[in-house]
Amino acid sequence: xxxxxxxxxxxxxxxxxxxxxxxxxxxxxxxxxxxxxxxxxxxxxxxxxxxxxxxxxxxxxxxxxxxxxxxxxxxxxxxxxxxxxxxxxxxxxxxxxxxxxxxxxxxxxxxxxxxxxxxxxxxxxxxxxxxxxxxxxxxxxxxxxxxxxxxxxxxxxxxxxxxxxxxxxxxxxxxxxxxxxxxxxxxxxxxxxxxxxxxxxxxxxxxxx
Length: 209
What we know:
The protein has 209 residues and is α/β, with parallel strands linked by helices. The protein has a single domain, classed as EAL domain (TIM Barrel), CATH 3.20.20. It is built from 9 helices and 7 strands. The chain has a 7-stranded parallel β-sheet with strand order 1-2-3-4-5-6-7. Helix 5 links the parallel strand 3 (80-84) and strand 4 (109-115).
C-alpha cells in the first residue's frame, strides 16, 4: 500500500540516522537536513507503483517552512503522508495545524509517528487530528502474549475509529504478532514480516505498509 522513506548515511563515523539528525539539530541544521532528505525522497516518488503512498518523516518545525510546501506542490500531494515526529517540541499547536491545513487541502495526509512512545505523541494525536496513527514498536512488541498491550492497542484502535483515523502498527515481525494486532482492531502494519527496509531498486511493491 505504501512505503516509508528512510535516511541512510555513508559518511563516517558510523552512527544511526537519528544521531546524524540530532547532531544537525545541535548546530541549527535540522530543518535543512530534513528538507534535503524530503526532496530526495519526493524525487523518487514516481518510481513507486502509482497506487501507493510515500511516508516522509518531518519535525514540527519543518512543517511550517515554505520550502516544504514548495516541495510538496511540485510533487504529487495526494500520494504523500507527512509523519510528524516528536524529536522537537511543538510550542503552538494552532500554528502547526494552520501550516498543515493548506497541505491537507491538496490531499496530503498526516500521520503521528511512534504513538505511545512518549507523552508528546499522544498530545499530537489529540491536537492534530491525524489521518494515520502509527503505534510505536514498543507498544506492539509482544502483544501476542501480553494482555496489557492487547488492551492498550484495542483502546487506541477504538479511539482511532471514533475520530476517523486508521492505525498502523510498527515493527510487525511475526505471524502471531500480526494476528494479535488484527484481533485488536489494527488494519495496517509495517515491519520485517511485511517488508524489510531496502534500496528503492529492490523494493517489492507487494511489501511495505
